[in-house]
Design a protein that fits this description.
It is built from 18 helices and 8 strands. By secondary structure, it is α/β, with parallel strands linked by helices. It is globular and about 80 Å long. The protein starts with a helix and ends with a helix.
């Protein structure tokens, strides 16, 4: 999977080893090659441009960390952008232990195989009690389709039911009744595919879904169809919606472009990938692991940890300096919030604050609001110019409007940020007037 990208990428970075500086020209060369690799991997031109723009912005903007060589630093940037790209803004799905999973997709995409693999995976990963699983199908177009499912169910070792109803809607009702009567926890429901997306398939799916109580809708896409699978996904999304996708046949000589683009384009998670015909050939899709694999770097983890430590130390040092000197800027304020982020959520920190220990003085709503505010504040500060971050006096009303638009917030949020910042500054001033020691003692 992604072998094509992997081979290309790892040889690319080798060319950076030994560079003592990260310059426009040596990064530029590698960037051009990354661009070529992605295009060859069947990623759309527009996405390639977006990806490259992000990498450039980060790589050329960021200072080289002490602990990393410039080449390593560049790999770190590409890695982080890859993870963001592979994830999109999608939240990963949890495998349910009860309820209904309905599997949809084009003919031959791998629905039936995937459904059996999912049942197998659920059983194999159940630590305590195994859920009682039922496999059933409403695919009445291919006579052998339901026989295939029956064989698979016996291989998995789970329940199977063949409805005698011949109408799809009636069959669904009958299957749900059987699930109830048999005391099954989980139903994996197979549906019929068509050669291409058409209205009759979508209508049928709508009928099926209407009869199900909060099902997880899973779309199976054949990775071999490349970019085409993205347009199929878009059509399914418009017509019936779906919660996550499985990319099947990733073991084939597919070039991986669809998987690369999926999260960014659809904003939904790839849940699993199929890597063969057998029941156990299913892997959970993990964007960070996938990015590591694409980059072909075994020791990427160590490298990232090194960078992380470096960033933390540098941040701490800068913050301490500004605390001591009493010069506290919006930039420091942002740094302070990001460090809090790293320490964990506000809710987990509250118990360490003096006077707050376990007393629950902050309600969950207040904590949530605080976290929400911090997120907004960080987005606002990021939309400012470097000059404004150093000197908030530069922010006039027209800049406030522009910044608000850039950060996707309202102008009054900027007022609130400046108020909170002013409060923090007063506090910092107090500390720097020789009170710091007293305070910490
Ligand atoms: N190599 C490989 N083959 C797969 C994978 N998933 C499914 N297949 C094969 O693809 C073919 C079609 O799979 P099915 O599960 O029958 O596909 P389907 O979507 O249910 O097809 P219809 O019911 O006809 O619409 C079968 O030969 C499977 O063995 C995979 O991840 N890797
Ligand atoms: Mg099938």
């Amino acid at each position: 999977m992604f072998d094509f990208l992997t081979n290309r990428f790892s040889s690319l970075f080798n060319s950076l080893v030994g560079s003592s500086k990260l310059t426009e020209s040596n990064v530029g060369d590698v960037i051009v090659k990354i661009q070529e690799s992605l295009l060859e991997a069947d990623v759309q031109q527009q996405l390639v441009s977006d990806f490259i723009a992000r990498v450039k912005k980060e790589a050329l903007g960021e200072k080289v960390l002490k602990s990393l060589k410039p080449g390593e630093q560049f790999i770190k940037v590409v890695y982080e952008q890859l993870v963001m790209f592979l994830t999109g803004s999608a939240k990963q799905l949890e495998l349910p232990r009860q309820g209904i999973v309905v599997v949809m997709g084009l003919q031959g995409s791998g629905k039936t195989t995937t459904l059996a693999k999912l049942a197998h995976h659920t059983i194999a990963t159940s630590r305590k009690r195994q859920p009682k699983i039922l496999l059933a199908s409403v695919d009445f177009y291919r006579p052998a389709a339901i026989d295939q499912l029956e064989v698979l169910a016996s291989q998995v070792g789970c329940g199977f039911y063949r409805s005698s109803q011949k109408n799809v809607s009636d069959a669904v009702v009958d299957i749900i009744q059987h699930k109830k009567n048999g005391g099954y926890d989980l139903l994996f429901l197979d549906t019929a595919g068509r050669l291409q997306v058409d209205d009759s398939m979508m209508e049928e799916l709508k009928h099926v879904i209407a009869k199900l109580t909060s099902p997880i809708k899973l779309l199976v896409l054949d990775a071999m169809t490349g970019q085409q699978s993205l347009s199929v996904a878009k059509k399914f999304n418009e017509a019936v919606g779906f919660d996550g996708a499985v990319l099947s046949k990733m073991d084939s000589d597919t070039r991986g472009g669809a998987a690369f683009s999926f999260g960014y384009t659809l904003n939904k998670p790839i849940w699993f990938v199929g890597t063969g015909e057998h029941l156990n050939e299913l892997e959970q899709f993990k964007p960070d692991r996938m990015a590591t694999r694409i980059l072909g770097m075994g020791d990427l983890q160590t490298l990232l940890e090194k960078a992380e430590r470096d960033i933390e130390q540098a941040d701490q040092a800068v913050l301490e300096k500004s605390l001591r000197s009493g010069k506290f800027t919006l930039q420091d304020f942002e740094r302070q919030m990001s460090m809090m982020d790293k320490l964990g959520s506000l809710s987990s920190m509250v118990k360490y604050l003096p006077g707050m220990g376990g007393l629950g003085k902050l309600s969950p709503e207040m904590i949530e609001q605080g976290e929400h505010e911090m997120k907004k504040f960080k987005a606002i500060i990021r939309s400012m110019t470097p000059g404004e971050r150093q000197n908030h006096g530069l922010i006039n009303d027209s800049r406030k409007t522009r910044i608000a638009r850039g950060a996707g917030v309202q102008v009054k949020d900027i007022g609130l940020l400046l108020k909170r910042f002013e409060e923090s500054r007063q506090f910092v001033k107090l500390l720097s007037n020789g009170n710091m020691r007293r305070f910490f003692r």
